Amino acid sequence: MFKYGRMEIILLKVVSCRRCARIFFICRSCWRGQAYCCDACRQASQQEAHCLAQRQYRQTAKGRETHRQGERRRRMHDTEKTVADTSSIPPIEHDRFPPDRPFIVPCCHFCGEKGVVVEHFPRRGYGKRNSATNIKSILTSWRRT
């Protein structure tokens, strides 16, 4: 959100889900580099990437040997279960809209704030002159559409 005169305008970025290709909007305050529209898409993509990595590793000599030793241990019942490495990104519990619901008015997918759609968020100038010019150019292009 930024102020333009007396107006407070919330900018929304357009994001396409890497898994299902669904388009959704996200505001700057919710933006954390999301690439997926929901937890289901994120978890499915993580699972696919993990399976691909396992498959590639098992095709190497070291991977085949490790797999062979693991199978021997399992047959001997000497296994200790371990937890696979998971992502450090916390799950999003406030997903506003289910993946099949189309949007009518552009609003943030996570917090529901309505705003203006931009291709990229403007760089924050932190007091530099160019930041105000950048925001004004975004607003003038928005008014033309």
In which order are the strands of the major sheet placed?
Answer: 4-3-5
Based on DSSP secondary structure assignment, what is the total number of beta strands? Answer: 5
Q: What is the H/E string?
A: EEEEHHEH
Question: Radius of gyration, rounded?
Answer: 23 Å
Properties at a glance:
single chain, 145 residues, alpha+beta, two-stranded antiparallel ribbon
Structure description:
The chain has about 140 residues and is α+β, with helices and mostly antiparallel strands. The protein has two domains: about 1-35 and about 90-145, no CATH class; about 40-90, no CATH class. The protein has helices spanning about 40-60, 60-75, 130-145; strands at about 1-5, 5-10, 10-15, 25, 115-120. It has a three-stranded mixed sheet with strand order 4-3-5, with no helix packed on it. The chain has a two-stranded antiparallel ribbon with strand order 1-2. β3 (about 10-15) and β4 (about 25) form a beta hairpin. The chain is elongated. The mean pLDDT is about 75.
List strands and helices in order, with pairings.
Layout: E1 2-4, E2 7-9, E3 11-16, E4 23-27, H1 39-58, H2 61-76, E5 116-118, H3 129-144
Parallel strand pairs: 3-5
Antiparallel strand pairs: 1-2, 3-4
